User: Which sequence fits this backbone?
């Protein structure tokens, strides 16, 4: 049984560990070792994660008291993060989180949801009818990441 609930600050260690492990084990199929190290190091910025949880619509998927995925919105309709635990991939958790996120966007009055997504996640979003606006290069701590600006009309 997967339960979706809003995150709170006590979830912080589990969320950042999941972020780091998913990037290291899953996104590593599509990005270089250096890119993965830089991206995963984002888990160390506790202050930023605290603000993300406190200020945004931030949800977690939980199974038997373990966080198996999370997603959050910024600016009302920007999906800024969607990560599923490395050991729980392809079990429908990402789809469940996305459904709840899209419902929240609709409920707050937006007609569109948008996101910047990794090469890894593109096939997933394609399956849920997201359109690619453009491919882009994102600069982070000396590394250049290729990702995609996507959107969907709700
Ligand atoms: C992208 C991600 C969130 C998807 O989560 P998930 O729980 O594994 O996805 P689901 O099990 O809900 O997948 C639902 C459907 O999407 C499609 N899908 C998911 N991953 C896919 C993949 N890698 N390739 C092709 N289709 C995929 C499939 O149709 C799948 O249904 P199926 O398993 O019955 O075939 C997850 O792979 C992840 O955490 N990726 C790394 C982090 C990341 O890049 N996040 C994106 C923000 S940058």
Assistant:
């Amino acid at each position: 049984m997967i339960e979706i609930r809003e995150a709170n600050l006590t979830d912080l260690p589990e969320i950042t560990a999941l972020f780091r492990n998913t990037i290291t084990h899953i996104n590593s199929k599509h990005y270089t070792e250096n890119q993965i190290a830089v991206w995963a190091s984002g888990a160390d910025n506790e202050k930023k994660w605290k603000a993300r949880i406190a200020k945004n619509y931030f949800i977690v998927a939980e199974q038997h008291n373990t966080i198996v995925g999370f997603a959050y919105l910024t600016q009302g309709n920007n999906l800024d993060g969607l990560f599923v635990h490395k050991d729980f991939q392809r079990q429908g958790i990402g789809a469940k989180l996305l459904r709840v996120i899209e419902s929240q966007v609709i409920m707050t009055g937006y007609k569109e949801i948008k996101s910047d997504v990794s090469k890894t996640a593109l096939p997933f979003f394609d399956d849920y009818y997201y359109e690619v606006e453009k491919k882009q290069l994102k600069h982070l701590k000396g590394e250049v990441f290729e990702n995609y600006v996507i959107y969907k009309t709700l």
